[in-house]
Recover the amino acids of this structure.
């Protein structure tokens, strides 16, 4: 069976592989037999090998060296390009994080290939699906030149276990001077929240301009906590200083695709929809019955968020007893 | 300090955007075209660096003739001059091909710093700094929410999920900017008038020494096979809050087995 390289994305906090990697391994199986590639600081691969094997990695290529962590993106792309040259895989699948897309871009130039970003599905014939223009358009596309390179958008494929051998093969790493120009001098975590990570949460409660103040975002947080979800915000809420930018959902913020998205005091501008349109169930709370957010809501309540949200929090908390 | 800012014209992201069924490319002719909003932050950053350290800001665009509107906007904000690469043969090019055109145009310019937006709002690819870094052999500092340029070194705060990475590299370098980096200025009346007289050099592929076979729909490294509008969602339920809105909301969540 054809070999497909899957670049593993690791949790920067040391929590193993990210779910996006398991999704990429699952999607890659449509094209052939996945081999996982771990490019990381020394001592990383040991902790993630089992998970990679469980989700279908027949092989695990381990390329460990301090340089791949000390410099931005370029060294990882070099190592991956070397593997592509050695193994001639049928395709390369990479999780669609900012870094993943940049690695894909560099790999495309190095290998003389085309690349598709943010694909949501890959078919056996190599055709991929992309969702464009804030979810308004669905596109089928394919790579016409070289080794097809895909970046897979998070939350578009459900990870499915498919236990495989996970045979480890270590890869010698040599990084060129050229790739050692952009040095990462510090990694700073500013917001540490006890809530689930926004892009991975299965429930997201977002507040918009209608929430009206930073203090009042408390009612959004309380509803999110009652539901065990993450908190999001519209750009208007962020620009007004109600909530930090890290939590912005939309075109220039995060893309989320949870089981449940609750939009509170958000009108539903196209740029906001761009980040939440593919949520499975959407609920809107808005005092304006004409707000465009209702067009995509499965359930909408027309009324004042200041009364509805705290009441809902109380009812949910009571149900949980 | 010679600064080049990459500027792309895109269909307004607040409107309904379409692909053209004739060849599956972005329907630009019928669209409400604007400067890519993200590029305004790159222009503002370029002007800030120039104001502090002196130098010249050149705008570089690859796009159809109508893209001059985006160039004028950049010039009216305060950029000094522009290069507009326009050639029928470029129509339908993908990211790999556009990066080849931008790289060729950049090689004809002098630059210490290249700035661009963190993403184009039409494609949302966020790949241009990586592609150009690879082609030009200069470092990539992408996704900046803060930039400092000092003594031949550029340093950014690269925006991440829960904070930032501090990354630095020697000049020349390519830096992309998010909308958290600054507040772009509005063009003044004086700026708008002055922009009309600023030099805009138009270049063809031949001027860049590129062959038509390097670009265009027929030679693209990726192909759009077909497209369709997303199927509309079925009508949802909308209830007025008559004191029982919260209860109905929670009942709905229960019916979906969410609570
Ligand atoms: C290039 C570009 C990128 C953008 N990127 C993003 C992005 O990433 N994310 C994003 O969100 N936006 C983005 N925007 C902005 C977007 O166009 C909208 O301006 C923004 O989403 C509006 O936020 P909002 O819905 O909170 O505010 P508004 O549109 O002002 O809506 C507020 C809503 O709250 C309701 N309301 C007010 N008071 C109450 C109350 N007491 N009870 C109930 N309801 C109430 C109102 O009826 C209204 O519908 C972008 C814009 C551009 C040009
Ligand atoms: C919905 C959609 C999906 C697409 N998917 C793919 C894909 O998967 N693979 C692929 O190869 N192509 C794809 N394309 C085509 C690709 O987006 C265009 O070829 C584009 O010009 C390449 O850059 P970008 O805008 O995507 O770059 P981005 O990396 O998103 O743009 C970053 C910055 O680069 C600068 N820039 C980009 N283009 C230009 C330009 N023409 N002139 C000057 N500066 C510029 C701007 O400063 C911009 O802010 C897609 C296009 C669309 C509309």
């Amino acid at each position: 069976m054809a070999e497909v390289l899957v670049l593993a994305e690791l949790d920067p906090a040391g929590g193993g592989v990210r779910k996006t990697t398991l999704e990429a391994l699952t999607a890659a199986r449509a094209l052939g037999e996945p081999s996982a590639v771990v490019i990381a600081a020394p001592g990383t691969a040991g902790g993630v090998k089992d998970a990679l094997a469980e989700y279908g990695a027949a092989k695990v290529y381990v390329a460990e060296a301090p340089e791949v962590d000390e410099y931005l993106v370029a060294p990882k792309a070099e190592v991956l390009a070397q593997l592509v040259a050695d193994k001639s895989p049928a395709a390369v699948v990479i999780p669609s994080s900012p870094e993943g897309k940049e690695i894909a871009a560099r790999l495309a130039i190095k290998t003389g290939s085309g690349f598709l970003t943010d694909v949501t599905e890959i078919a056996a014939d190599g055709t991929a699906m992309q969702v464009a223009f804030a979810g308004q358009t669905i596109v089928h596309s394919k790579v016409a030149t070289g080794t097809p390179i895909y970046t897979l958008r998070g939350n578009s494929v459900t990870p499915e276990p498919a236990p495989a051998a996970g045979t480890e093969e270590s890869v010698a790493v040599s990084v060129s001077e050229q790739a050692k120009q952009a040095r990462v001098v510090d990694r700073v975590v500013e917001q540490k929240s006890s809530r689930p990570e926004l892009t991975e949460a299965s429930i997201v409660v977002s507040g918009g301009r209608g929430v009206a103040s930073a203090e009042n975002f408390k009612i959004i947080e309380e509803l999110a906590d009652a539901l065990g979800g993450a908190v999001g915000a519209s750009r208007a809420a962020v620009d007004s200083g109600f909530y930090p930018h890290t939590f912005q959902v939309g075109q220039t913020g995060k893309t989320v695709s949870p089981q449940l998205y609750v939009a509170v005091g958000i009108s539903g501008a196209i740029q906001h929809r761009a980040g939440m349109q593919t949520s499975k169930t959407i609920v809107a709370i808005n005092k304006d019955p004409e707000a465009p957010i209702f067009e995509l809501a499965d359930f909408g309540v027309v009324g004042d968020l200041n009364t509805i949200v705290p009441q809902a929090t109380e009812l949910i908390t009571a149900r949980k007893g | 300090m010679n600064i080049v800012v990459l500027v792309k014209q895109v269909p307004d992201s607040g409107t309904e955007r379409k692909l053209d069924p004739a060849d599956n490319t972005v329907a630009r002719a019928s669209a409400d075209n604007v400067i890519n909003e993200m590029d305004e932050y790159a222009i503002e950053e370029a002007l800030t660096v120039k104001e502090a350290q002196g130098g010249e800001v050149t705008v570089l665009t690859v796009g159809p003739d109508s893209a001059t509107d985006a160039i004028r906007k950049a010039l009216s904000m305060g950029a000094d001059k522009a290069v507009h690469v326009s050639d029928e043969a470029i129509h339908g090019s993908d990211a790999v091909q556009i990066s080849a055109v931008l790289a060729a145009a950049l090689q004809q310019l002098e630059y210490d710093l290249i700035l661009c937006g963190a993403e184009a709002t039409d494609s949302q690819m966020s790949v241009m700094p990586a592609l150009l870094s690879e082609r030009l052999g200069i470092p990539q500092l992408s996704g900046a929410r803060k930039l400092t340029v000092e003594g031949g070194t550029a340093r950014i705060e690269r925006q991440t999920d829960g904070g930032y990475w501090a990354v630095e590299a020697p000049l020349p370098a390519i830096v992309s900017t998010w909308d958290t980096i600054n507040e772009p200025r509005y063009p003044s009346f004086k700026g708008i008038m002055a922009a009309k007289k600023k030099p805009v050099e138009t270049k063809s592929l031949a001027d860049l020494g590129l062959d038509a076979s390097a670009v265009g729909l027929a030679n693209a490294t990726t192909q759009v096979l077909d497209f369709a509008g997303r199927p509309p969602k079925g009508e949802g339920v909308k209830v007025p809050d008559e004191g029982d809105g919260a209860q109905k909301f929670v009942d709905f969540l229960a019916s979906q087995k969410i609570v």
Notes: Helices of chain B lie at 37-53, 68-77, 95-107, 128-136, 189-195, 245-255.
